């Protein structure tokens, strides 16, 4: 009997020795509601610190940070917007924006892979981290501060002034795309200098143009000339000075004919969209269209098919002008964006959700004008928490640069 007990105890102890490995293999990670797949090294729980460790590649692939590994000093540098984290393999502290921060555990090497503590890294990058033991799940909700953002610059003459100050503001706000209206009277060298400075800070610049009249057939030559100018400009400068895309803001619903001759306007709009598709094919330029959030309620003439889906089929991205200053509830940012986000997810295209900071005459719940930047960021975070699980969601755009800069 005693021998039987000893054998049973030995078996239990041997199983216990394998428990951490079994437990580690079942650790799951989700970011913004979507499960993360790890094709190579999987996350695991460090036995000593009880911290969940993830491959360094996860930080760049899923949290959007830039990572750098120095094999000689065994040092890891992680950068995202204004934040820089420096860790050394084996050290239980890090430099966060130049200040020492202690934490349990340490970065480690496992099978040639650099592994870092997911909670520490995520929280330093302003994400919310929740452990769900019933599901063996580490749930990470990223900060809206790190979500891609675009903004419009309508007066391109301002880039002749303090470019560094403008780009510094854009970088501080997490801007990743600037939609810059093209004024062909400005020296191309001004554009090149601005674009080079922006790209050096990780900000892409798209050539912006359009007006309601561009819906008419008579304006097709204007459209061709704009596209041709950007192509010619790009071919005359290096990749670091080039526009990365074309950004069209046409808005034919601002015309009086929109209600009087809606079918004719829609058909003319579609003809000009086909022209843009044809003229830009094979150019390597990303094509984005500004559209109202309600475009999905407008049907292609004679068909039970939305105009938004029709446009998504043709172009890379729609920027929906979802001008509301509240995230949740009836007629809020989230509710108004969901239909087109579902359409885009099905079509494997992208949607940017735009909000307004310019003074509006359309009512009190349209613009963040006269509301603090802090309140806007809180509303955008609430919207982000709801929209992030859509595969088509590509962040926010703030209209426009000047008004955003002037916000209190």
Describe what this molecule looks like in 3D.
- This protein has 408 residues and is α/β, with parallel strands linked by helices.
- It has 2 domains: 26-142, 2-Layer Sandwich (Copper Amine Oxidase, Chain A, domain 1), CATH 3.30.457; 145-406, TIM Barrel (Alpha-Beta Barrel).
- The protein has helices at 2-25, 56-63, 118-124, 163-172, 188-200, 220-236, 257-260, 262-280, 307-314, 333-347, 373-387, 401-406; strands at residues 28-31, 34-35, 44-45, 52-55, 66-70, 75-80, 83-88, 93-96, 99-102, 108-110, 113-117, 128-132, 137-141, 149-153, 175-181, 204-209, 245-248, 286-292, 317-321, 350-356, 393-399.
- The strands form 4 sheets. The chain has an 8-stranded parallel barrel with strand order 14-15-16-17-18-19-20-21, surrounded by 6 helices. It has a 5-stranded antiparallel beta sheet with strand order 5-6-7-8-9, with helices on one face. A 4-stranded mixed beta sheet has the order 2-1-13-12.
- Helix 6 (220-236) runs parallel beside helix 8 and helix 10 packs across helix 11.
- The longest helix is centred in the first third of the chain and has 24 residues, at 2-25.
- It starts with a helix and ends with a helix.
- Mean pLDDT is 90; it is low at 1-25.
